[in-house]
Amino acid sequence: MNNLAPILLFVYDRPEHTRLCMESLQRNHLADDSELFIYADAAKSEKDQKNVDKVRAYIHSITGFSRINIVERESNVGLANNIIDGVTQIVNQFGKVIVLEDDLILSPYFLQFMNDALEVYKNENKIGHIHACNLFMSDSLPDTFITKFIGSWGWATWDRAWKLFNPDGTALLKELESRHLTDNFDFNNAYGFTRMLRRQVKGLNSSWAIRWNASLFLQNRYSLNVGKTLVHNIGLDGSGTNCGAGIKMSTELFSKEIPVKKIEPVSEDINARKIIENYYRTTYSFKAKAIRRIRRTLKGDLGA
Q1: Given this model, what pLDDT does residue 191 score?
Q2: Are 229 and 139 in contact (CB under 8 A)?
Q3: pLDDT at position 236, please?
């Protein structure tokens, strides 16, 4: 396949996660024809240095791609800044990009799907994002569907869409509130995306993803999503900085190709939106969160 999208991988201090992610990526049959960019952040503290060094040693041993480019940050910039800067550089150079973090396990058909979707929808301005992870565990979802759910676990975009990214969380929040869009943004108050953005504004998190989500939402752009997951996140084990443990999600990777046929007209799949809303209500209700906390406490995990 010609004109493959570059792959962008962000790593930090999890050598085992990074190895498992890379091995799954190498099993994709388009890997050897794809160019890989790895952005490795520097240690935030002395206690992180040992594992940062292990990750950096490992990424220099990687083979199996048409070309491998490694960027090692000289000082710690943090995940959000690393991603924003890396995506901006690569998407501006190539016009499109596939983005991964170090805690993702990929189906062998992940790259095929992402490249097919990038090609099929390249001139469809209403689609700003492609996401290959399905959290929602519903058999009634089609192979591909369009919603305003912007997921960050194995995604891709084009330069035309990334130009819409606004890193200013304060401006995004103000516009959501002034246009009375917060309920819709939160899937009818099923999940606190607005709260997440408020916390980013207050400096309580540094999420780039909530700002990307809000940027596309406010510009009325959609995401193409999959009904069967091509990505599994193994970072919900408490090892990451942004995700807690114990969240319910699909774990079985789909082991066949997902065909990409252009959905017309481009509009939100109402049934899919209801499924997403129900998932959030079931998974993030007070009762569901209380049960997860009790289970983690019984296992000795006292994290939030």
Answers
A1: 96
A2: no
A3: 79
Low-confidence ranges of the chain (pLDDT < 70): 1-2, 237-251, 285-293, 295-304
Residue-number span of the structural domain to which 29 is assigned: 7-164+221-298
Residue at 13 is within a domain: yes
The domain total for the chain is: 1
Separation between Cα atoms, residue 110 and residue 258, nearest integer Å? 9
Residue 182 lies in a domain: no
14-52 pLDDT, tens digit each: 999 999 999 999 999 999 999 999 999 999 999 999 999
Alpha carbons 129 and 259: distance in angstroms, whole number: 17
| Angle of helix 79-94 versus helix 208-218 axis, rounded to 10 | 50
Q: Quick one: pLDDT at residue 304?
A: 38
Question: What CATH number has the domain bearing residue 231?
Answer: 3.90.550.10
Kindly state whether residue 2 falls inside one of the protein's structural domains: no
Beta-strand pair 96-101/7-11: parallel
Q: What is the model's pLDDT at position 73?
A: 98
In a domain, 207, yes or no: no
